[in-house]
Amino acid sequence: MKDNKIFNRIKNISVIVFILLYILITYISLRGEYLECEELGAQYIQNFWTNIKYKYSIMGISFFVIGIIMLLTNIGIKRGLKQFFENEKKEMPKLPNKSIIFIVAAIGSIIISNDLVEKVLLFASNVSFQKVDIIFGLDISYYMFIKPLIETIISYALKCLILISAYMAAYYIIVFNLYF
After folding, report:
1. The whole model's pTM is what?
2. Helix or strand or coil: residue 132?
3. DSSP secondary structure letter of residue 130
């Protein structure tokens, strides 16, 4: 019982430290970018706020999506492990799923938003070039603005699938080594 309280306290402290570190690093980074835009001229401050709006919107959406994917993955893992614990007649331990979900979703959303914001901003500023590709009959702007965003989203979906598979394998290996 005492070990469980210590583990919960360490888990809570690590999540709080993670959040505080993220806030501190974000503040320093944003303050530097703001001062840089201010040095360039007042007209660039509007661009700064537009970039921030898109970046944190993408970060929020990706945090939510990654969190849901991780939650569903952990539910599936728990169901898979339940059978092994029942066969061995052992009580299933409480695993740190919520903390793992939060930290993985936060780190994943930071990585995705940093890379994806450029593509989304290009997509948002889509204009027609009034020239058509002779092979596919598409406007050239498709290849400049839309296609890179689609490729990036597909790339992230594949990477997510690979990482979720590796996460599941690692989770099973760790639980089997600790409890069996």
Report:
1. 0.77
2. strand
3. S
Hunting for tokens 């614990």 — which residue is that?
A: 85
What DSSP state is assigned to residue 139?
A: B
The amino acid that residue 13 corresponds to is I
Please name the residues in contact with 160: beta carbons below 8 A apart, sequence gap of 6 or more.
Answer: 66, 69
Whether the Cβ atoms of residue 112 and residue 149 lie closer than 8 Å to each other: no
pLDDT of 90 reads: 83
Angle at 46 between CA 41 and CA 50, to 5 degrees: 140
pLDDT for the residue numbered 162: 92
Paired strand residues for 139: 132
Asked if residue 164 has pLDDT above 60, the reply is yes
